[in-house]
Design goal:
about 375 residues, alpha/beta, 15 helices, homodimer, two-stranded antiparallel sheet, about 50% helix, Dehydroquinate synthase-like, alpha domain, globular
């Protein structure tokens, strides 16, 4: 097992009606004025918005609102909100929504202290401080509610890049699973795919980290089983709660302990796909890439994949396990090929160029341009 | 799944040579002067002491030392160290050792701000602040390195009681598994028993918390498997590292998520045993009680124990799973009955009196005096 540092100071308040605590928690954290960031309006329907406003008002916390953060959140929007945040004098950023909203909030929280926030994403500037981030999670999957990472898309340069900082861990995240019971199933499936990929980006990193491997197998099985349950019965509270908590743990540090930082090829490829086609959600892109990635690599190094096949799918054969994974994703309504995502064959070269900003990609299995091309063909 | 709050701000630095970071970490935390607390001297032999002193000196941190904290740490010693801490003007408490040393350090850290530290244990006084606690772990098992709890024994009143506070989470814990390679196996076995019992105190609390159940099964299997490996090969670094990390996770909050606070009967009974016989280690007491506790309860509510039998021991039958557990503990050299711990039959009434300070014990399975007597007989 590799040496590691584990530090996750985010407080989680989980369960029904936990939003009632939000205002007092912010008040106790010294906040009197915040900017509330939201997406396309679903929080008005699921009840989150009314509960949040009620809790803020009861605690005497002033706020202003910014709406319309999109899936694959945009740099232009982040820049706009940074200006509003400064103008309003907000002392905290409150995200009410899913991963896109939370990532936007984190970029804003850091951005108010930076000359240009994009510099932090292209690694020209280090994040040394940020406004405190509070979140109310309404879609599980990204794990952003309990980590220090954010992914933002620069449409002009077609770059979907990420940043990580200890200053970006939310101070408090509220996870009320009942808010998710009205989600269309495809959003739950996207979230499941996202969380599964977070675990698998780490999982093959170190066969000696038994403690992390067994925990990750537990998380994978719980996510798969609860997604199946939610497909049949979206109102099953316990399935929703166990799903939500497992997806949080999938990217809060735990799943990566001793795993050499993970691989992240599939995320890199998906980021290129969705930078080119912002309509492709993160879960959709990953579903098209991840099974092909395992299939491609398992031909080269089959032994690395035996444990996953056995412990997650109860299969002795890796190819059969990949087939089980593909069938599962298709059963959830996810496309498992680039063709099914309506990518055109003549776009593959452009996608390849966008992926290969370094000579190889992948922290665990290093792939060069030829190998990534072969992988894209297999995923097509 | 029950509502819960998860908050664990302890930073963990894990792996070989991590002690070199200690001094700078303390310095960055604003500490210039600390009190170092240690046990019977094993840290001079395993190398921890020299590394700690070197790191403190390089960072220019002054310190004073207190030695001779015992297993089942004593209130009298805590009181003594509180006075020394005040006198020296220490700004932090640094524990170098196992759970007894860390628990002592926590009690000291809180005690400097209390009129009488024991008041916090008997719930007459709330801990509102504490000195920062830093730890260098040299024996895994208690989990104290990553939680806010401490257990102290008052010899005069024969009370072994615990306290929990968010102010008692260590600010930083360093876990270097190489320090444990020279431990006698019985100490590893005691630590394994302690961690297993932490998980099982929670495990039967809520059959709907699937995410926590599957993680706890993973932790149990890893602890059992790595203890077996360490019995054969104490120098196996990966076994030691996976063992260490799993025992930390067994009581850092993760294993109790959605579990209604757990049961804690076995800990309560063990605390009575070792308050009467301070020579009985925590792991030894638990090994004598825990299998009997499962056996006793599974006769009343067998269905509650099926999942444990199946998922941890691959057994359809609970009694066979209990037998497997007992055989495993005996294979590790642990006594699994009160008789084998040299408890005398005529002491059982006194032990029962010490246990039953409330009409029933157990947060999940409430046991009255008659039931606890029957359980003690079964454990005898």
């Amino acid at each position: 097992m590799e040496a590691f540092t584990f530090y996750n100071p985010t407080k989680i308040m989980f369960g029904k009606n936990q939003i009632t605590h939000l205002g007092r928690q912010m008040r106790n954290g010294g906040i009197k004025k915040c900017i509330l960031i939201a997406g396309q309006g679903s929080i008005r329907e699921n009840g989150a918005y009314d509960q949040v406003i009620d809790s803020l008002e009861k605690a005497g916390i002033k706020h202003t609102e910014v709406w319309d953060v999109e899936v694959n959140p945009r740099l232009a929007k982040v820049r706009e909100i940074i200006e509003q945040t400064k103008e309003y004098g907000a002392e905290a950023v409150l995200a009410v929504g899913g991963g896109s909203v939370i990532d936007t909030a984190k970029a804003v929280a850091a951005g108010v202290y930076l000359k240009d926030v994009w510099n932090a994403f292209v690694h020209k500037e280090i994040i040394k401080q940020a406004l405190p981030v509070y979140t109310v999670l309404t879609i599980s999957g990204s794990g952003s509610e309990m980590n220090g990472g954010a992914v933002i898309t620069n449409i002009d340069t077609r770059q979907k890049w990420s940043v990580t900082s200890q200053h970006l861990y939310p101070r408090l995240s509220i996870i009320d699973p009942t808010l998710q019971k009205t989600l269309p199933f495809n959003q739950t499936a996207n979230g499941a795919m996202d969380a599964i990929s977070h675990i698998l980006e780490f999982y093959f990193g170190n066969e000696k980290a038994l403690s992390t491997l067994t925990i990750n197998e537990a998380l994978l099985r719980t996510i798969i089983d609860t997604t199946d349950l939610l497909q049949k019965e979206p109102h099953d509270y316990d399935a929703r709660a166990n799903f939500a908590w497992s997806t949080t743990l999938a990217l809060n540090g735990l799943s990566g302990v001793g795993m050499r930082g993970g691989d992240w090829s599939c995320h890199g490829i998906d980021h290129a796909l969705s930078a080119l086609h912002p309509g492709i959600s993160h879960g959709e892109g990953l579903a098209a890439i991840l099974p092909a990635w395992i299939e491609y690599l398992s031909e080269k190094e089959p032994a690395r994949f035996f444990r996953w096949a056995k412990c997650v799918w109860d299969e002795e054969n890796v190819i059969r396990a990949v087939r089980r994974l593909r069938n599962k994703l298709e059963g959830w309504g996810l496309a498992t090929s680039l063709r099914d995502l309506s990518i055109k064959p003549d776009e593959l070269d452009q996608i390849l160029d966008m992926i290969m900003v370094t000579p190889t990609i992948g922290g665990v299995f290093k792939l060069n341009e030829d190998e990534v091309r072969a992988l894209l063909m297999l995923a097509y």
